[in-house]
Amino acid sequence: MATYIEPIRGKKGITYKVRYRLNRKNKCKSFKNIEQAKRYEKQLSSLTNNIERATIPTIGETIIKLLADSKTKDAIKGAASNLRMLLKYDIARIPTDALRGSDLVEHCEIRKQDLSRPSPATLYHDITNIISSMKLANTLFNLNVDINSLTEGKATLYKLKWISGSTARNRRPSSNELDQIFELAKVKQEKPKNKLPILDVIMLALETAMRRSEVVKVTWDDYSAEKQSLTIRDRKDPKNPIDQDIWLSHEAIAIIERQPRSNINEPIFPFSAGTITSNWCALCKQLAISNLHFHDLRAEAACRYYQQGWNIVQIAKQTGHKNLNTLNDFYLRLGLTERQLLKAA
């Protein structure tokens, strides 16, 4: 609110008018001396600041708004779970216009104390998702987040080595580990109280290289036994998600065929990705198998394709990778000799 004091000369001397604009209307109030006018102007300024502060959303409120906005649903889909997790941290309570690079550093300090002891790569995702979501919010919601300060904060975190890009995993389950997992998963799947066919889900992931989110998304309408194919709608892609058909082995078809049939628009596996993760983690914990993620099955499938004689282009079509370097560096967890042969092919 812009205010200014205007001296007015009259028959009885000088009076002072404090002029301001409120609710799109010009207003003023007169005072006999300058001290009273300045005091009133200060009160107006304080009131304005309080009103503006009350209307400025916090980081958490902005994240919630982004998650609920249909325009941004696809843009932040990959970061949604991480953004929801950030809502429980102190950084979510900071007003958007007050967020600075130092707050990112403080957030990482807090996160490093978590029981999970997040890696620099995990903290990198926190920081990247905060900055990218605030860039969106600046434009869509007309906010005033200082992106330059956040970028400087990110650079500082790199120098401190508190954040870093993802490092390539080389974890592959051993034959013995898979045998144990299959055996226990079979026992759990056969229990009437367990609705999720966890063994079938694991086997399908190994046969198709599908992500857990894709396993629970495909519908009966997407499946064709005759064509030996499955259509994955809006398959994950950094720039342009598209529908993609993948090949199904006879074993994959058998797994799908033994699932209870429902409406063609219903999922073949009507569960959440989180349910798969929790069941997988429970299996690994019970078997004392460490550092094996469900996503590692996707890499295992890619390795098996290569060892069966598929070329890298065929594998990429099945896994959905447009960047062959990403496929080679992160998913084909092969020995050095095999990697060299692959690059030379």
Task: Describe the model.
Helices cover 51% and strands 12% of the residues. It is mostly helical and 345 residues long. It folds into three domains: 3-55; 59-160; 175-344, Intergrase catalytic core (hpI Integrase, Chain A). It has a three-stranded antiparallel beta sheet with strand order 1-2-3, with helices on one face. Helix 2 (59-68) packs antiparallel against helix 3 (80-86) and helix 8 crosses helix 12. The N and C termini lie far apart (68 Å). The model has no long low-confidence stretch (mean pLDDT 88).
List the topology elements:
Blueprint: E1 3-10, E2 13-22, E3 25-31, H1 34-55, H2 59-68, H3 80-86, H4 101-111, H5 120-140, H6 147-160, H7 175-190, H8 198-208, H9 212-215, E4 223-224, E5 229-235, E6 242-247, H10 250-257, H11 273-286, H12 296-307, H13 312-319, H14 324-331, H15 336-344
Antiparallel strand pairs: 1-2, 2-3, 4-5, 5-6
What is the overall pLDDT average? Answer: 88
CATH homologous superfamily grouping of the largest domain: Intergrase catalytic core
Order of the strands making up the biggest sheet: 1-2-3
Structural Rg: 29 Å
Quickly count the helices. Answer: 15
In the CATH hierarchy, what is the class of the largest domain? Mainly Alpha
- The CATH architecture assignment of the largest domain turns out to be Orthogonal Bundle
The major beta sheet can be summarized as: 3 strands, antiparallel
Low-pLDDT stretches: none
Give me the count of strands. Answer: 6
Strand content: 5-15%
Number of domains: 3
CATH fold call of the largest domain: hpI Integrase, Chain A
Q: Helix proportion of residues, in percent?
A: 40-55%
Organism: Photobacterium damselae
Keywords: DNA integration, DNA recombination
Protein name: Site-specific integrase
Domain Tyr recombinase: 171-345
